[in-house]
Specification:
Blueprint: H1 2-15, H2 28-38, H3 42-54, H4 63-93, H5 103-112, H6 122-136, H7 140-167, H8 184-196, H9 201-229, H10 242-257, H11 266-275, H12 279-297, H13 304-325, H14 329-334
Helix pairs in contact: 1-3, 1-12, 1-13, 2-9, 3-8, 3-10, 4-6, 4-12, 7-8, 8-10, 9-10, 12-13
Length: 336
């Protein structure tokens, strides 16, 4: 269920693109800020799923099989759809000039994940995939203590202290960074811990409380800081920032322990099991479906009706397209 919710949240974020068109007077930006904050968990939850599902890979298959699967399921689709996305931008959106495209442009785009801007997350994802075999070498009986130590230390050094320093302007200047758990790799270990070790109801409620606090900090902090600056403020934004960490960890925990209770409903269970086979494909193609729909129907992208309803339409259209394309043998390779 987490993968389905995460994929839908990504679509909501990109449909809500008007958030990045800051306005201190337009009412649309207030709702855009709320939608942005509510669905901000999408990428962190995706990385937590990776940690939960992959760190134990050596119990199922060899290291060679692990990398073969990662190459076939992510690297090849990333490269192919990056080129398709570049062609889409040149000939359909006309947002990229053909004269600017050369080998350097392409290589930089592939290495930095910005040949198609929404593919940026592939680069930290590949780094995570390269790191996971190292974590898998740690004996199972020692993982809880070691991972907890790394996560707590990383939270203090890379999340809490920088947040307090920036928000309260403490003036600290330090270069300590626990790189192995910085940014999205932090969520990989958190996902493993939350998935594999039982959390008491009392501790879950604390995580839910912190999640609400994180959401409020993200929304209110971004609103007031942006209004004061006259532009979007990043003071409370960022996946490694305290509001996002508190909120995303709470969301993942809620999905695992409480939202999953409705999975007892056979129809919901069947629907989720069906949709989870399409989530990665949705990550790959939803932007193209979004751009085509907006351009063909000349939609007002600042309309709240559009921003609330379009994600479900786009999600459904993507599922249909992927289902049809997978009937073509070659397309199965690039839409796993």
């Amino acid at each position: 269920m987490a993968s389905v919710i995460s994929a839908l949240a990504v679509v909501f974020l990109h449909v809500n693109g008007c958030f990045w068109q800051f306005s201190s007077t337009g009412r649309y930006w207030i709702t855009a800020n709320m939608i942005e904050c509510v669905f901000y968990f999408a990428v962190p939850v995706f990385f937590m799923i990776s940690g939960a599902m992959l760190i134990d890979f050596n119990k199922k298959y060899s290291l060679r099989e692990y990398f073969t699967k990662r190459i076939n399921k992510t690297l090849i689709p990333y490269i192919v759809w990056s080129f398709l996305g570049l062609a889409f931008q040149i000939w359909y959106l006309q947002s990229v000039l053909p004269s600017n495209v050369n080998i350097t442009y392409i290589l930089n785009g592939l290495l930095n994940g910005n040949l198609v801007n929404v593919y940026w997350f592939f680069i930290p994802l590949f780094c995570t995939y390269l790191t996971i075999p190292l974590f898998a070498l740690i004996p199972t009986e020692k993982r809880k203590d070691i991972f907890t130590y790394i996560v707590v230390l990383g939270f203090i050094i890379n999340v809490a202290v920088p947040f307090l320093n920036n928000v309260f302007n403490i003036g600290l200047s330090y270069s300590i960074s626990l790189g192995v758990v910085s940014n999205l790799l932090f969520y990989t270990l958190v996902g493993y811990l939350l998935h594999n070790y039982e959390i008491s109801k009392q501790k879950r409620y604390f995580l839910y409380l912190f999640a609400v606090i994180g959401l409020i900090m993200h929304f209110a902090g971004t609103y007031y800081a942006s209004m004061a600056a006259g532009e979007i403020s990043y003071l409370y934004k960022g996946y490694a920032n305290l509001p996002a960490v508190l909120y995303s960890v709470g969301i993942f925990t809620f999905i695992k322990y409480d939202l999953n209770k409705i999975m007892g409903n056979l129809k919901v269970n069947n629907l989720v099991n069906f949709l989870r086979n399409y989530t990665f494909g949705i990550y790959l193609i939803h932007l193209y479906v979004l751009r085509i729909i907006v351009k063909v129907f000349s939609l007002n992208t600042k309309s709240i009706i559009y921003r609330i309803s379009a994600p479900f339409l786009i999600f459904g259209v993507c599922v249909l397209i992927i289902h049809l394309l997978r009937k073509i043998p070659l397309m199965k390779k690039i839409l796993p």
